[in-house]
């Protein structure tokens, strides 16, 4: 019983760290995946796998980073900045810069 309680406490301590790590990065979902697994936008390196491209951090403002991603990757169906998905209006403004 003691071990079980200790394991549950340890698991609870790990949850916020995982959520914080996920909420700190960016993700973009282009309509068509880029031909290369890595995409560079200014000084931000994106890694693409499956249907999503991700980057752990960027010095760009969220809206600018989305526009740069759309310019390099094409129209995006979704963009998430630090755990917060862009709404339809923000995504439309972003996609106005798509190639």
UniProtKB/TrEMBL annotation:
Residues 1-21 form the signal peptide. It holds the Pfam family DUF8200. It comes from the Bacteria. InterPro entries: CC_3452-like, DUF8200. It comes from Sphingomonas guangdongensis. This is Uncharacterized protein. Keywords: Signal.
